[in-house]
Write a structure and sequence with these properties.
Order of helices and strands of chain B: EEEEEHH
Structural class of chain A: alpha/beta
Distance between the termini of chain B: 27 Å
Radius of gyration of chain B: 14 Å
Shape of chain B: globular
CATH topology of chain B: SH3 type barrels
CATH architecture of chain B: Roll
Number of strands of chain B: 5
Order of helices and strands of chain A: HEHEHHEHEHEHEHEHHEHEHEEHHHH
Shape of chain A: globular
CATH topology of the domain at 59-164 and 249-293 in chain A: Rossmann fold
Largest interface: A-B, 49 and 38 residues
Strand content of chain A: 15-25%
Helix content of chain A: 25-40%
Oligomer: heterodimer
Helix content of chain B: 25-40%
Structural class of chain B: alpha+beta
Number of strands of chain A: 11
Number of helices of chain A: 16
CATH class of chain B: Mainly Beta
Largest sheet of chain B: 5 strands, antiparallel
Number of helices of chain B: 2
Chain lengths: 359, 80
């Protein structure tokens, strides 16, 4: 393995020297972010190669308006909130699901199926599943919505905040941060959507897109491949994670997403409104749509005062550039979601960089 | 949140499975991976199998998961 790392590092160094300018590569997956820090990958990068942690952590990109909608629903006495554990500590305007737990019924679930089971076990309550995540979790939500419909489990509904990765990458390049030279594409999202899903970014924006696994050596080889392409003036689509990622992805999962959901314009933290980037239940399943059932909307609201998570997610600043970082915002008492989630860029910087530049 | 866990299918009835990873067993569904068979190693995400995976790749991911757990368990130690 050391041979592979050395070889990749040589390739990376040579390519970055040829390029002679600042290179910005964005990783779009929270698990990559954690692995990069955990394994000290940044410490072996050439000086002019910068890694940006993009909008790859589902909790982080979830808009404040959605969080507030969740907290509003948690106040209802006739409901149980079923949520993945990641969401529980995200602060809203005044509190979080965690602080509401004393009064509200909030259950942590490991799968969408557990949420549906809660509804079966509690017919006297309405169970609202906080359906967040990218293309990896969306099919799991779709499956249980179909099952709830088939079995007429009407005390179940979902608040869909599912997001699509590719529209966010396009939005970044289209305006918010066109300084991104290439993307290190997510591993397990690609299992679902297939690496072919990134072809449009390569074609339309001329940026290399390389899918990599999560091991340090796989990440380093992915970065080296990107550097090779950039120094040769090329932009190609490549998967270096052939153990589980195919060009077409998991078609059964894509099919069930398409059956239940349609992409609509949606709000992202920091990135604002992005065209066709959020999954909404199709009309035939609208009775399971918590937005409709409780007549609530996800209105855009301002981020908490001083919080710069939005700029972090766009790769415009690094976490230590935020005045709150490590002072009033820490993993123990987070202000913004990038510090809440263990996959967030701020949490990773804090835990491994402790506020110092990680190079 | 987008890290799937490799696990072996040790029981399977229709699309309902029991899977095993590193000695931990839990329920999962194979609805999204109709080709999955008893004994297969699969990637499980949010309770659903999403892909077949080979032994070598599974081992790598298990190691990574062990690292991440270590990471999540240590916030107080590194906050200094």
């Amino acid at each position: 393995m050391l041979d592979r790392i050395n070889k990749a590092q040589k390739l990376m160094n040579a390519a970055c020297e040829t390029l002679g300018r600042q290179i910005n590569i964005m990783e779009v997956c929270g698990t990559h972010t954690v692995s990069i820090f955990r394994n000290g990958v940044r410490s072996i990068l050439p000086a002019n190669l910068r890694l940006l942690s993009g909008p790859g952590c589902p909790v982080c990109v979830t808009d404040q308006g959605y969080i507030d909608a969740v907290l509003q629903l948690a106040d209802r006495e006739d409901c149980i909130i079923a949520t993945y554990g990641d969401m529980i500590r995200v602060p809203g305007q005044d509190d979080s699901l965690e602080t509401k737990r004393a009064k509200a019924e909030v259950k942590v679930v490991l799968s969408s199926e557990d949420a549906l089971q809660l509804a079966k076990d509690h017919p006297e309550k309405t169970v609202i599943f906080i359906a967040v995540g990218f293309e990896t979790t969306a099919p799991a939500t779709a499956v249980v919505v179909k099952e709830a419909a088939a079995a007429s489990i009407d005390n179940f509904c979902i608040l869909s905040g599912h997001k699509l990765v590719v529209p966010a990458m396009r939005a970044l390049l289209s305006g918010m941060n066109n300084k991104i030279d290439a993307f290190l594409c997510p591993g397990h999202v690609s299992v679902i959507i297939g690496y072919g899903a990134f072809a449009g970014i390569v074609r339309d924006f001329g940026r290399p897109c390389v899918v990599a696994g999560f091991e340090a050596v796989q990440i380093i080889e992915g970065l080296a491949e990107i550097c090779r392409q950039l120094s040769a003036g090329r932009a190609e689509l490549k998967s270096m994670y052939s153990a589980v990622v195919t060009e077409k992805g998991n078609t059964a999962a894509q099919q069930v997403i398409g059956e239940c959901f349609e992409p609509v314009d949606g709000y992202w933290r920091g990135l604002g409104k992005i065209e066709k980037s959020t999954l909404k239940l199709k009309d035939k399943y609208e009775r399971f749509d918590a937005f409709k059932r409780f007549d609530i909307s996800e209105s855009p609201v301002a981020e908490r005062k001083g919080c710069r998570c939005g700029e972090v997610l766009c790769g415009l600043i690094e976490p230590p550039q935020c005045a709150l970082f490590g002072r009033s915002c820490t993993p123990q008492e987070p202000v913004g979601p990038c510090m809440v989630s263990s996959e967030g860029a701020c949490a990773a910087w804090f835990k491994y960089g402790q506020g110092k530049r990680h190079k | 949140m987008c890290l799937a866990i490799p696990a072996r299918i040790v029981e399977l009835e229709a699309d309902r499975a029991v899977v095993d990873a590193m000695g931990n067993r839990w329920k999962a569904r194979t609805t999204l991976l109709p080709e999955a068979k008893l004994g297969d190693l699969v990637l499980i995400h949010a309770g659903f199998a999403i892909s077949l995976v080979d032994e070598e790749e599974a081992k790598k991911t298990w190691q990574l998961i062990a690292q991440i757990y270590e990471f999540e368990d240590t916030p107080n130690k590194v906050s200094g």
